[in-house]
Specification:
The complex is a heterodimer of chains A (252) and B (167). Chain A has 252 residues and is α+β, with helices and mostly antiparallel strands. Helix content of chain A is 29%, strand content 21%. About 19% of the residues of chain A have low confidence. Chain B has a single domain, classed as Butyryl-CoA Dehydrogenase, subunit A, domain 3. The chains are: A alpha+beta (252), B mainly alpha (167).
């Protein structure tokens, strides 16, 4: 017994002995709410991507299917607004979405993603990582988003969990007017080249086959929209973006 | 692979206790039901994860989830306590009803975290260290809050506590 307060303990017990909790109803409602919460969290990282891309002119074209999900942009997002540090924020009880069963956790540290991209591309061009309120980092076990400069222009990399089949996901994710095609190794991919709000964006998404889709976007300006382009086309080519998005280094 | 049936078995067994804790925290039956449902939903999500370790101690996990959900909800909403003038329970004897009314009023006068400290320590018989861990505060804060909350409870009840207990 705690301290010398038997009266309080007895008081609490007496007052709650015959409360008559509606156990069956509470459990049924809890399960129903839990299922709904689980669905929302599965979509969380994808919605985080949308929130990030909200500052980019091609958003509506890139992720039209996500706009209709009606999710709160804040769900499942870990951000580091206006922080100069790349140290990931650890969430003791992650609320991230999960990929389908059997998918590996993403082991690549988010702060190492830009350098990994540079090693895949194999040429000079990597600049600073961009971290501010408009371009936050997302660092989940099952989802990563990071923005950095390449030849002075913005580049965004997004790794998101997929909890349906790749074919189904690609069908709803692909930009209007573009198609889901197959890489030489059989994995699904889609790509686009769009100009909106002055900025031209080239993007490639590859479905990993193990529960993720990896999107890489290269812009011809230092920002996603309403900034002056610094070169005629995005500096990373479609084949370079494909190499980045299809790399196995993200799961190593 | 976690199953929904296993979760339901756990929830059915654990919900009566969670409800008791929730009632003491909320001092209101309807809020207690909402809190238990929200807690079960969160535990369900964690339980049904297909990847990662299963929950080591589901009962403790559910209890901590409930207490933290209660405190964070109070912080988020900046709720003002509503004095309870009617209780939804029916079919209880008059003594218990008086006791609950008096206790609900007294608990409503406490800060949410003080209420949580008292409930953990005196309903669950949790140690200072366990209470501190569950609430994410220091052991010194638990001791101070316990003393302060008990003092307030005594003030609220005055000399009527023994009468209520023995009625």
């Amino acid at each position: 017994m705690n301290d010398n307060q038997p009266g309080v303990a007895e008081l609490f017990r007496r007052a709650t002995d015959d409360l008559g909790a509606p156990v069956d109803e509470l459990v049924a409602s809890g399960v129903t709410q839990g299922r709904a919460l689980r669905r929302r969290r599965r979509a969380g990282t994808a919605v985080a991507a949308l929130a990030v891309l909200g500052v980019i002119g091609t958003t509506a074209a890139v992720v039209p299917s996500l706009v209709d999900r009606g999710e709160s942009p804040g769900d499942g997002v870990t951000t580091q607004p206006a922080s100069p540090s790349l140290t990931p924020t650890e969430d003791p009880e992650p609320e991230d979405g999960e990929p389908r069963s059997g998918a590996p956790e993403l082991t690549v540290p988010v702060e190492e993603i830009p350098a990994t991209v540079a090693s895949i591309v194999g040429r000079e061009g990597l600049g600073e990582t961009r971290i501010d309120a408009l371009y936050p980092i997302v660092n989940h076990r099952y989802g990563k988003i990071v923005h950095f400069y390449w030849e002075g222009t913005l580049t965004s990399l997004l790794i998101e969990p997929v909890d349906v089949t790749d074919a189904k996901d690609c069908a709803t994710y692909a930009v209007e007017g573009s198609e889901c095609t197959t890489l030489a190794d059989g994995r699904l991919t889609t790509s686009f080249l769009l100009t909106a709000d002055q900025v031209t964006t080239r993007g490639v998404t590859v479905w990993s086959g193990n529960g993720y889709r990896v999107s890489v976007l290269s812009y011809n300006a230092p920002g996603g929209k309403d900034v002056a382009p610094t070169m005629p086309q995005p500096p990373l080519t479609k084949s370079e973006l494909e190499a980045i998005a299809s790399s196995d280094l993200w799961y190593a | 692979m976690p199953t929904e049936q296993e979760f339901e078995e756990f929830a059915l067994a654990r919900t009566p206790h969670l409800y008791r804790v929730a009632w003491l925290l909320c001092a209101d039956a309807h809020r207690a039901e909402d809190l238990v449902q929200e807690t079960l939903a969160k535990v369900y999500v964690r339980w049904m994860r297909t990847l990662g370790r299963p929950i080591d101690n589901p009962a403790a996990y559910a209890q901590t989830t409930l207490v933290r959900t209660f405190i964070s909800a109070r912080r988020r909403r900046s709720e003002h306590e509503r004095p309870t003038d009617t209780l939804p329970e029916q079919g209880v004897d008059r003594g218990d009803l008086d006791l609950r009314l008096a206790l609900a009023g007294a608990l409503s006068a406490l800060e949410p975290i003080d209420r949580a400290v008292l409930v953990l320590r005196f309903l669950d018989d949790a140690s200072v260290a366990d209470t501190a861990a569950q609430l994410g505060i220091s052991q010194g804060a638990v001791r101070n809050r316990t003393m302060r909350a008990l003092e307030r409870l005594r003030t609220q009840f005055g000399t009527s506590l023994p009468d209520l207990l023995h009625s």
